[in-house]
Amino acid sequence: MTEKKVVVYGATGYTGRLVIEYLREYNVPFIAAGRDEGRVQDALDHIPGIETADYEVVQVEHTVEALTELLRGAQVVLNTVGPFSELGPAVVEAALAAGAHYTDTTGEQDWLITCDEKYGADFAKAGLLLSPGLAQMYTTGEIAAQLCLEKPGLDTLDIAVFWGGSPTVASTRTILVNAATSSAYYLEQNAYTPFDPEAGLTSLVVPGQHELALSLPWGGTSHPVWFKNDPRVANVKAQGGVFNAALMHGVPQIVAAALEATKDMNQEDRDAALTATAAQVMNQMPPRENPRVNKSLDSVHASGPLGRAHCVIHGNSNYKQTGLLQAYAAYSLLQQAPKQVGFASGCQAFGHRELLGVLRSFGLVMEPVLTVQN
Ligand SMILES: NC(=O)c1ccc[n+]([C@@H]2O[C@H](COP(=O)([O-])OP(=O)(O)OC[C@H]3O[C@@H](n4cnc5c(N)ncnc54)[C@H](OP(=O)(O)O)[C@@H]3O)[C@@H](O)[C@H]2O)c1
């Protein structure tokens, strides 16, 4: 049983540390939890200014029982331990058992669908928020979509998300495991519709550059899940990738090779092989983000029978955006109830204009460019 109301799980990770930096700036006391107490303490010792934060370090086993014990007395768990389709269920089940709100940093569409369909109703019944995917990918794009949807009568969202910089170890593993093992869906007339797995790279016109960008369905993204039950929206298609075209050319080849090499393996062996492949791509913690290198671009074209809107949000430091969104969620939940309980996106739970204001106030996104046509 803890007296601190906020638990950061995965505190040794690149994203967990950033969550902690922003919790310190919001003056929110927290528990930093991970599977190895020494590594958690070491990670925290490297966070500038940590001596002014109010925190405890706790080692916890990755089981529902141990995590439930950790979360008893807490009000919210901020989970950064991914891949979430594999490691998320234990934390969600523990949050529900302990009566804590749950947020995480996933960008995995299959995990969102599981949260919505398997756990959402139980969280709603308990008056708790279940908000997976409160992260740069794809909350910043969701803010852009919600700004477009302020104009009534738009039912179709065409979304692009791009970023620059290096992925972390877990992000690389997540991208590979997820791309290799699950389908990607878009939304057509409110029904999940699979992308053609053979379609390969698509060239996209993205705002702010003359060169065409290369995109993939990127696992389908969170958007189709968040908007599936939004009465304003019927169609959602999102595509994305990294600005680095050479890397984009490599991604389908790496995924196809990994799929071929692991197709006859059982799940355990396949996960181990995919993890090893991911480690060949990225096996070290990337450097601290630099706004001149680490960029984000979210662009949403919204359309309806008699109207159109386009919103573009240029930002920087994708992982910092994620850390800040998570810390703000905890800060907000300590003071007031979310706008929605049960399964809800960041914008549905906290408001898109509020989240935009948070990102703007820390210098992580530019003012959105919104064009509306009647
Ligand atoms: N959607 C987005 O925009 C976005 C942004 C940021 C991150 N993410 C996602 O968030 C996740 C974390 O990213 P990251 O950048 O923080 O990665 P990271 O630096 O590799 O950290 C991963 C964290 O998970 C922990 N972990 C891994 N396997 C575990 C296990 N079996 N049991 C307990 N803990 C385990 C690690 O602990 P140890 O130190 O003990 O290994 C570490 O704390 C990834 O899935 C990533 O894709 C998404």
From TrEMBL:
Q: Where is the DUF5938 domain?
A: 139-373
> Saccharopine dehydrogenase NADP binding domain: from which residue to which, for each copy?
6-109
Source species, domain of life: Bacteria
Q: Which SUPFAM superfamilies match?
A: NAD(P)-binding Rossmann-fold domains
Pfam families the UniProt entry points to: DUF5938, Sacchrp_dh_NADP
Task: Please name the InterPro entries in this protein's record.
Answer: DUF5938, NAD(P)-bd_dom_sf, Sacchrp_dh_NADP-bd
Protein's UniProt name: Short subunit dehydrogenase-like uncharacterized protein
